Amino acid sequence: MNNSIDNQSDVLNQKPIYKPEQKKYDISPTNGTTLLVVSVLLGFIFTICFSDPSIFPNLSLLVFTIFTVVFVPYIFRKFHCLQNSKGLIWAIPMLFLATCNLIFSINAFTYLNCLAELGLLAIYSNALLSNKPLFSGFTVFFKRTFSTLLPDKIGVGMFLLFNIIKTNSEQGHSTKVNHFKKILIGVVLSLPFLIIITTLLFNGDLVFRELINHSFSGFFDYFKGFDLGKFYFRTIVFFISTFYIMGYLYHSKVNKKEYTSREMKTGIDRTISITFLTMLNALFLVFCVIQFTYLFTDGVLTLPADFTYAEYARKGFFELLFVSCINFAVVIAFLNFMKRMDNKSLVKKMLFALCVFTGLLISSSFYRMFMYVDSYGFTILRVAVLTFLIMECILIAMATISIFKENLQLFKSSFYVSLCFYLLVNILASEPTVTWLNIERFHQTGKFSNQYFAEETLVDSLGMMREFYQEVPNDEDAEIKDNLSKGINRIESNLNNEQSHWQNYSIIKELNTK
What is the chain's percent helix, strand, coil content, to nearest 5? Predict the structure, then answer.
């Protein structure tokens, strides 16, 4: 009894072990102020570059990308999170895509490049934050990439802003530097409200407007035709983008979790695999026999009524393209799941057969597309598809090799190949390249792409079309010069009606309008 009483008294007399509380949004005043200023700057640049529907992401994408690739590693270094300076190399494809938007005017890849920049930004950030391999696995790679871009960063930025204000206001015995930080934060926070309120007063009170105009010698004349609805939208975009950027940059400080590649614990049954692949290969065998009979034999099988070979090539082209992509995904999935399978030689042979059939589908797609181009000429989409087919050939060849050489890092290699081809297609499938191909097609075969030159050409082709118009003899087919004239007039009319913004500046468009 006495022992239990003594034990209880010892427990009561023990001093509790102090454990510092980990604050969720803990950040030093210096880093907090730096983060706030950088986030506001990037948010302001983002708003200027992308918040107006009449503004196209030409020069604007390059401007925002330059600031991003500079300030992201700067903030990471301030937070002592920059672990891999070699990750800066990922800024090269980002700047390349942004430069393509600057060189060419609006085309099929202008907005796709903006989406690609988001993905590359996530890869760029993850590469800077970790010394571990970026491509440690298919699942791990996409988990890291998507988690970096999640929209929950907006809420993180809002709570972080409140914490920065609270931290700076609670500091005692502030020095002049601390006072300057507080003043800077106050100025940054007050500017949006001052702009909104001033705009409302300027448009709502004629006396106030005249007084301001008189006092500042017309400095605020810009606001006379100010669109309040557009301004409010831009203000919302500014706040959302600023909070998101703040949360995005701060996420590097709190995200200490390192993703590690895990060995595939689950597999797939050998019998199920053989049955699945046998049925799939049998289907493709029948399809390929019929396909090649239509395309490469004389009269054994005939096309459906009212079908030309060019129409036949066009009708099922994209379906075949999609099927070949599915086959490639099936091969990758089996290569991952069969790592723990015993006696997998037959499964490998079945996968090899599937790769062969996929290669035949790609060959058929090539043949179909060349038939279609031969009849109707080149367009941006057709050149992009031909480039994509070449990429598919390389990917399926790599998949075939990886069936028998299991140490080949297929996902990593496939990603790099896909990225290189996407960068390349920005040049190959550009408007000047496509126009040049159609002009060369005319010179070599005499076939003229009526629809392309009359209806589909863009401003980047204007200079080449003018030269081509002068090259065509007057005694040539009048329809050719008429279609060229229609295309030139259409482009010039669009240029005259286009709103001029510095964000829309592109080099080739500027050269063509001189």
Answer: 75, 0, 25
* Rg of the chain (C-alpha set): 31
Q: Which amino acid, one-letter code, is at 340?
A: R
**Residue 14 included in any domain:** no
What averages of pLDDT result for each successive group of 10 residues across the chain (514 residues)? 50 45 60 86 91 84 95 89 89 95 88 92 89 72 80 81 69 55 67 68 63 54 55 83 90 57 57 81 78 56 52 59 77 74 78 86 81 85 88 89 78 89 93 92 88 88 89 76 89 80 85 76
- Rounded distance, CA 8 to CA 25, Å? 39
pTM, rounded to two decimals:
0.78
Q: Do 108 and 227 share a structural domain?
A: yes
And the tokens for 236? 């919302």
Closest to 390 (Cα-Cα) out of 354, 428, 357: 428
How many residues does the structure list for the chain?
Answer: 514
Q: How many other CB atoms are there within 10 angstroms of residue 68's CB atom?
A: 20
Q: Which of 37, 334, 310, 404 is nearest to 188 (CA)?
A: 37
Query: What are 390's two structure tokens?
Result: 């070449």
Q: Which range of residues forms the domain containing residue 382?
A: 270-428
SS3 call for 295: helix
First to last CA, the chain: 102
Domain end, chosen from 220, 254, 288, is at 254
